[in-house]
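Continuing from yesterday's entry. The apo prediction looked reasonable, so today I'm repeating it with zinc ion included to see how the binding region is handled. Same sequence as before; SMILES copied from the compound registry.
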Amino acid sequence: MDSVVMLKRSALSLVVIAFLSGCSSKKVADAPKNENKSAQRELVVLAGPAACGKGTVANKAKDILGFITVSTGDVLRQNVGQETDLGKKAKPIMEKGELVPDTLINDMVQDWLIQQATGTQPIILDGYPRTIGQAQALIAMLKDPKNAAYHLRVVRFTVSEKEVVDRIAYRVVCSNKVCQKVYSLKSLPPKVAGICDVCGGKLIKRKDDTEEVVRKRYTDYMKTEAEILAFFKSQGVEITEISAAQPMDQVFAAFKTAVIPA
Ligand SMILES: [Zn+2]
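Holo prediction written out below.
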């Protein structure tokens, strides 16, 4: 019994791996027919520590490449706003200022993916998965036939701890809670000093942007990231690494090459 289950499982993961690698390689004349091939839709997970520039890449991908970006905050707000069953469960937790559990977030992401499954725009999952549990859930949801059109890939931005510390020393954010746009006094200054370009809010330094906190956050992040990426690798997910130490134009060009296969 167990061996049958195991056989089934390994066969399934082989199919998934073949499916994942199949769409990134160039078309082969005798490739097996795959009805979904034309409908395949890029689902991109961005990995990288705070201040690696992934937020800027996500915004550019949206504006220039026509990506949809979705964060766990977006799906939470959507569910609460539409008073879905999941939203009703999440609302009291959020009102108490507590963290919404992974299982609820995963279910919301799953619903969102299924709703979006017939669309064609490529997607960036912003800040998801954040934990190994979420990563496992994502792989499981992509095995649902309803999500067969998605092609998951990871783009990982690498940046040294020192570079992150340097970048955060220059970082200011909009104090308007609904805006929170991030600026760099070095590479992305506001048009008017101290004022948010988008909403006119006052720009402040985050209290927790101290060197000590930044270093601790970096170490913790890298540990979780390593765990998540090892898991994705074991599932045959393609991972592209891009050095985030380059100027943003080059980072974005590398991103474009990675997500839009020739
Ligand atoms: Zn603002």
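Comparison notes:
- Strands lie at 41-47, 68-71, 123-126, 150-158, 171-174, 182-184, 203-204, 238-243.
- The pocket of zinc ion is lined by residues 174, 176, 179, 181, 196, 198-199, 201 (CB under 6 Å).
Will overlay with the apo model tomorrow.
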